[in-house]
Amino acid sequence: MTEVHIAIYDLSNGMARGLSAQFLGPQHAIDIIPHTAIVAFGKEYFFGQGIEMCHPHEFRMTRGIQPIDIQSLGHTSCTQSDFEAWCRAQAQGRFSATSYDLLSRNCNNFTEEAAREGLRLGRGVPGWILEVPQRFLSSPMGTMIRPMLEQMQLTNAAPTNVSHQMNNDQSYTPAATPAVATAAAVNPWADIPETSPAPKESNNVSPPETPFLDKQTALLSTDTGVVKLCLDRLNPAPDQHEILSKLGNVNYAWTHAELQSIHQILRSFMNEMKQVSFALMLLRLAVLREAPLINADESQSIDFVADLLLKNKYGSMSTRSMAWCVLSNAFGSKQLPSWTTDGNNLQSDKFLQLIDKAVNDCDPTVVDASAPSHKSLRQSASAFLYNITLTLTKYDGTDGNSELTEAIMSVLIGCLENLGEETDSTSVARRYMCIGQILKSRQFGTTAVGLTKDLGMLDADMIRSASHDDAVGKVAKEVASLL
How does pLDDT run across 453-463, given as a tens digit for each residue? Predict the structure, then answer.
């Protein structure tokens, strides 16, 4: 089952609330000029120039707009392939690129039908949104103002620099250049290829040298000095204390049974909110310890921590920060857990949601962002993003033209977003390291460079400013060379 959300935007950017009563009269006033989209399977689906889809972060950055509300519509048993087959069928008829109608076939009508018919959900677009066009046109001034509203609809918004198509592995395909763009570029559902496109020809230009990025390894939290403090606060039973205290000895030769016991003990402490931070401090060390046999309890612990993060069960920022340290250590020191992929060897919804959660915790624009607890949270979340980037980009490619996976694109766009607003040099450096590892990847590099340039989210002035910081300078300069 996949959870489905509706993203609600105000195309007037707040202007409707202030001006509509004045122009339309109090009885016909509207709070927003709504645009809605379906968010599911790690994508945002909407009706603009035909039925379109892209990554949510990418949609919001290229359009320069953020949702005013995101609501859950429930869970669907419909698969991504089934839903996109429905979209393809609708793109040939009712919701084609030329079928837009203000009253009966707008973006909100598409979202309503996509939710109820395409995804077979019991809920759709809130009724007040569907009533906005009629409410507007029923006003004395409605007929006169109708052309202005049509201009504000997404169909006439400035086009993005990225056109999205999909192939069988649900990955990103770079846009065609404007000179050769066809109708399919306007409506990516019109002609979805059944097979992956032929690989691009590689050039023989030597890649830039990146000595700083090349020597980087996983970012791991290894301090054992807090073990005694944690044990004092947890106050475990004597036999538990004995085995937990061994986490302070980095040279201890663990048995499978001992590590299994460690994970079971620490998970039991995480049921108490007053103890969870200290249990996480020890768990971040436990996931670094090796045993002769594969430890199923370790995977269960990692899964447990990830679930608590996704369900917002960690109240304080310090606890969330420590949870990211656990996942960062686990993902940076070992292979990704089995639950990060689904049965088709694609990144699972849960893994993609975890990446989005880390990106959100890296946001430097929140209130009190300069507070130490906020900085620590951003540092821990960005370390997690960097460690999974190392794993996701380690596979050899040929010319860097492979299509970006959902996880790679989420990390890249997430690290680019608000990068210029970040004032903590450690967080800035880690985000640049994520970007750099993706841009220099032998598998994804060329595609990622093209996307980064298309998005225009990393300019020369930003890199030049970052280069003056000793902690960021080297990696920022190497990122600039890759672009």
Answer: 887 888 777 77
